[in-house]
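Consider the following input, taken from an annotated entry for DNA-binding transcriptional regulator, LysR family (Lentzea flaviverrucosa).
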Amino acid sequence: METRELRYFVAVAEELNFGRAADRLGIAQPPLSRAIAQLEHRLGVELLTRTSRRVSLTGAGEVLLEEGRAILGAVAAAERRTRATAADRPSLVLAAKAGSSGEVLAKLLDAYANEPGAVPVELLLCESNTHVPLLDGRADVALLHEPYDPTTGLDVEVLTTEGQVAVMQAAHPLAGRSQVRVADVSALPELARWPRRDGTYPDGAGAEVRNLTQLFQLIELGRAVAVLPEVTRNGLAEGLVAVPIADAPQVTTVIAWPPHSRSRALADLVRVATGFS
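Applying the prediction step yields:
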């Protein structure tokens, strides 16, 4: 297989839509469809199940998606690190969700900067509803949050574990409770909805949100309630409250990196992160 074919397949497998994948790749849809069909023919397996309404991955397609991401990530990372070395500018790219892990991120950057031989760390901040670009080579390491962020195929070390809270206006009927349950929050018509991986939203009457800035503005206006990690209660705007959700799953913050990495700087960063967590 060529990296071009893998790039085409990964785009289709992630979008689960040939039109969106073609737009993402900057090519027309017919040659993209032909390239995927040729790849399937050469491998002798069906990678995608196509109907008039939807595209889905087969078991073989799921395997190639995972392997393809790792391969493309390794290639992209090798190119980036090679150029950085040639320019005598070694560095690490650390990805994180904007508005998340602020305290952990600040502590990590400060502690690592004091390490002998520390290299510059570039921050890649991503939208809350997107997947952190770790396997495509744009980042060397990332702060992720299980169970919301997938960590399959990555090496991880646990940093912190916390509960979840429902964030709402102080005037909300549930705001005076010492705790609520998942069923209480799920039944709220104003529960905010985040997009799925394919860009569609779950059914419901709640506002459709794409980032934390938009979300908190809606909460302040009384138009939304959101389920967020417990750390969110720190620094809430006046008029908002965070009520613990007793039976919600724990949120685990991890530092994650591709298993093929052999960077000494990355190893030092991970060691520092696990040292103060």
